[in-house]
Amino acid sequence: MRILKTDIVLSCIPLSNVVIILVFCIAAAVGHYYGHHGYHHLPHPYKFGYDIKDHHGHQHRHEHGDGHGNVHGSYGFTDHRGIHRQVHYVADHHGFRAEVKTNEPGTASQDPAHVHLHSSAHHHDHHGYGHHDHHHGHHY
User: Fold this and answer.
1) Where do transmembrane segments lie in this chain (predicted)?
2) 3-state DSSP call for residue 134?
């Protein structure tokens, strides 16, 4: 039987010490690899948007950020019946602020939670958006 020098060295070191040494070697290797490839990147300015027009209506969204935590944007829709909602928003060191313009049934002009809602909906008795006076099927 041939005895290698590593067998003699390992047989002289208690198993618990070998495990501890291995753990430190693995931690050092992982720390070295991930230390140079951090997940935190500095913010960069950005801009995106889309506009979709089809037989259902029109949807859109546009947003841009300056890379310093300030964001401006808008989104909205107009359906095939002319019901629309347009939202303009800002998020910055003053917090989030939005202005909503709509003619959706059931809305009224108001300013809840720093959101300004401007409605041009007709004020009459109704049951809300999408309500029909006829019934189909079962209601659960």
Assistant:
1) 12-34
2) coil
Q: Tell me the C-alpha distance between 42 and 33, whole Å.
A: 20
Query: Which positions ≥6 away from 58 have C-beta within 8 Å?
Result: 51, 52, 77, 78
Q: Are 104 and 126 in contact (CB under 8 A)?
A: no
Helix (H, G, I), strand (E, B) or coil at 137: coil
What is the per-residue pLDDT across 53-67, written as a single tens digit (0 to 9) for each?
999 999 999 999 999
Asked if 100 contacts 77 with a C-beta cutoff of 8 angstroms, the reply is no
Predicted structure pTM score: 0.55
Q: How many CB atoms lie within 10 A of CB 100?
A: 19
- Residue partners of 77: CB distance under 8 A and separation at least 6: 57, 58, 59, 60, 84, 85
**Nearest CA to 76 among 88, 64, 85?**
85
Closest CA to 87 of 66, 60, 106, 111: 60
User: Per-residue pLDDT tens for 105-126?
Assistant: 998 888 777 677 788 887 655 4
